[in-house]
Design goal:
The complex is a heterodimer.
Chain A lengths: L7 E10 L5 H10 L12 E10 L2 E10 L6 H4 L8 E7 L3 H5 L1 H11 L9 E7 L7 H4 L1 H11 L3 E4 L8 H22 L25
Parallel strand pairs in A: 1-3, 1-4, 4-5, 5-6
Antiparallel strand pairs in A: 2-3
Chain B lengths: L1 H9 L5 H20 L5 H9 L7 H11 L22 H9 L11 H21 L9 H11 L2 H12 L12 H7 L2 H8 L1 H10 L7 H6 L8 H12 L5 H12 L1 H6 L4 H9 L7 H14 L2 H8 L5 H15 L4 H15 L1 H7 L6 H14 L1 H14 L8
Helix pairs in contact in B: 2-3, 3-23, 5-6, 6-7, 6-8, 7-8, 10-11, 10-14, 14-17, 17-22, 17-23, 20-23, 22-23
Classes of the chains: A alpha/beta, B mainly alpha.
GO molecular function, one term (chain B): GTPase activator activity
Organism (chain B): Collichthys lucidus (Big head croaker)
GO cellular component, one term (chain B): endoplasmic reticulum membrane
């Protein structure tokens, strides 16, 4: 985050969710533009860097691929530090992985709070949407309600395999990260009215919600 | 054995032909150790560690069970069937095994591979069912597949079960606390050899999770060439259960220039270190790991690493006891060999005994020996292994 002639942002983003939901595949698709059905299980933590041009500024995204198995949770905790945003991923073909979403969200919020006391921006990804759709994702309205109730800033049906909605989801997350960063900068000055990005105004970023 | 050592020492630059000769002699030596009554397990351990390891999968089939003290009579037993329905581990094991395609040889027909994947699931579930105190971890399947690709199912099951209750025991606790504790040995080892690299890594706050998959899969998860994986398994099966962490340290130290040139930032250093180079000089690194183990045994690092006792080390003592009991004359043989080894490596062993202040210099001396006198350095490793299980590991 050096201030050279051009402004640069560095954001750390966590990618979490149950094992085998496609976290690694999503990152590989987003960063390396490819897909393999043969990715191995992630043990511990992996890391990838994505550089974006954002309104004439450079945004560097550090994507941290966190192992899905619960027993690694205690070891990966340290990698949550200073994260600004997160993707929580589930597999539309495995209802159990969706049921775990709230657990991952609660865990994330318990480990991580922004300087202004708010939770980090989190986008929910319903991955493997190319492999048929579970009832859960067929009802967009319910998903939006789920997101609002659980503090997600948006959700996307994604497919790392078919490259569906990966860029869109990332852009949505970056937008919210930048908004919360501005929010924090402003909140450092006392008696300033800060723009709200709260869940009761879930429609703030309507573009983040896919119209079904 | 003695002959091969002096041959190695007298010609530090060994041509291909020379290795072929040594390879043939080693094959004969292994056959001899296997046919001795009782089987000369100590000699087999040395073979597994020394240059080239156990050479072929055919030899591994015969030697690996000996190294783990698994009787070949397990071949007479039908493997028990395991219920998959309502098995708490099945879903997770299935997901991991499905994602283990890269661990199978590229040319293997799909049908054969799928059959082996089914066996892989069975072995894992069988061991877990028989040992309810053990907990599955992601990466365990990488260990099991290595055995399954070398041995047939029944032997693979028996060896994996033995390993799981000994070398891997710590990783299979309900939590990863003991695994974390073992990872804590990494930085003290690096510090002894290259404090600059140690300080740099501390400053970057990189932690040790980059080495987690190395440790709990014995590098099976990260190395793409199966020959390298089994070569390391030869080494680790013959050694103290903490040897993989010494090998991890050796890899970091081998890359010291890259590390120091890296941006001093957690993400960048983690990224660099977790991408393991595929062209590592394995024989040299194995030898170095042995050197480090001799110079900085776990007992010396234990206090720094943490206060908890490591289960693997303590169970390893029992295990070693069990495997020596089958050979009542092992103590005598060991003493005889130690004398021999001491003669052959007097230079190396005398520097090893220096006080810790001289340690960094000592490292260079032993490293130098490793290159110039491979056989002598190897004797140091062997000597260490002879007494390693006797060490009071956690005073």
């Amino acid at each position: 985050m050096q201030n050279n002639h051009q402004k640069e942002h560095l954001y750390k983003i966590l990618v979490i969710g149950d094992l085998g939901v496609g976290k690694t595949s999503i990152i590989k698709r987003y960063v390396h533009h490819n897909f393999s059905p043969n990715y191995r299980a992630t043990i511990g933590v992996d890391f990838a860097l994505k550089v974006l041009n954002w309104d004439q500024e450079t945004v560097r995204l550090q994507l941290w691929d966190i192992a899905g198995q619960e027993r690694f949770g205690n070891m990966t905790r340290v990698y949550y530090r200073e994260a600004m945003g997160a993707f929580i991923v589930f597999d539309v073909t495995r209802p159990a992985s969706f049921e775990a979403v709230t657990k991952w969200k609660e865990d994330l919020d318990s480990k991580l709070t922004l300087a202004n006391g708010k939770h980090v921006a989190t986008v929910l990804l319903a991955n493997k949407c190319d492999q048929g759709r579970d009832v859960l994702t067929n009802n967009g309205i319910k998903m939006e309600q789920f997101c609002q109730e659980n503090g997600f800033v948006g959700w996307y049906e994604t497919s790392a395999k078919e490259n569906i909605n990966i860029d869109e989801a990332a852009n949505c997350l970056v937008k919210h990260i930048i908004a919360s960063e501005n929010d924090m900068l402003q909140s450092e000055v006392p008696d300033t009215i800060t723009p709200q990005l709260e869940k009761d105004k879930g429609g703030t970023c309507s573009s983040c919600f896919r119209s079904q | 054995m003695k002959k091969s050592r002096s041959a190695g020492a007298s010609s530090p630059v060994n041509g291909k032909e020379d290795w072929d000769t040594r390879r043939k002699r080693k094959t004969a030596d292994i056959a001899q150790a296997l046919s001795a009554t009782p089987v000369d397990v100590a000699a087999l351990r040395r073979m597994a560690i020394s240059e080239g390891g156990l050479l072929t999968d055919e030899i591994r089939c015969q030697v690996w069970p000996r190294l783990l003290n698994v009787p070949l009579s397990v071949l007479d037993q039908e493997p028990e069937t395991v219920e998959r329905e309502n098995n708490k581990d099945y879903n997770q094991v299935l997901l991991d095994v499905q994602r283990s395609l890269r661990r199978f040889p590229p040319g293997m027909p799909d049908e054969q591979r799928e059959g082996l994947q089914e066996e892989l699931i069975d072995i894992i579930l069988r061991v877990l069912k028989r040992n309810p105190q053990l907990h599955y971890y992601q990466g365990y399947h990488d260990i099991v597949v290595t055995f399954l690709l070398v041995l047939e199912e029944r032997l693979a099951t028996a060896l994996v079960e033995k390993l799981s209750t000994h070398h891997l025991r710590d990783f299979m606790d309900p939590t990863m606390d003991n695994t974390k504790h073992i990872l804590n040995y990494l930085m003290p080892i690096i510090d002894r050899v290259n404090p600059e690299v140690h300080d740099f890594m501390q400053q970057a706050e990189v932690g040790t999770v980059f080495a987690l998959s190395w440790l709990i899969t014995w590098f099976g998860h990260v190395l793409s060439d199966f020959r390298h994986v089994v070569r390391l398994y030869d080494f680790f099966l013959a050694c103290h259960p903490l040897m993989p962490i010494y090998f991890a340290a050796v890899i970091v130290l081998y890359r010291e220039e890259e590390v120091l040139e890296c941006e001093c930032d957690m993400a960048m250093v983690h990224h660099l270190l977790s991408q393991i180079p595929q062209d590592l000089p394995y024989e040299t690194l194995i030898s170095r790991a042995g050197d480090l183990f001799v110079q900085f045994p776990p007992s010396e690092l234990a206090r720094e690493a943490a206060s908890h006792e490591s289960m693997a080390s303590s169970t390893f003592k029992d295990f070693d006891l069990a495997s020596t009991q089958q050979r009542p004359d092992s103590v005598l043989r060991r003493r005889r060999r130690q004398k021999q080894a001491a003669l052959e490596s007097s230079a190396a062993s005398s520097v090893v005994a220096q006080p810790s202040a001289a340690r960094r210099f000592v490292r260079l001396a032993v490293m130098g020996l490793t290159v110039a006198l491979g056989a002598a350095a190897l004797a140091v490793v062997n000597t260490a292994l002879e007494w390693a299980p006797k060490l009071d590991l956690f005073p």
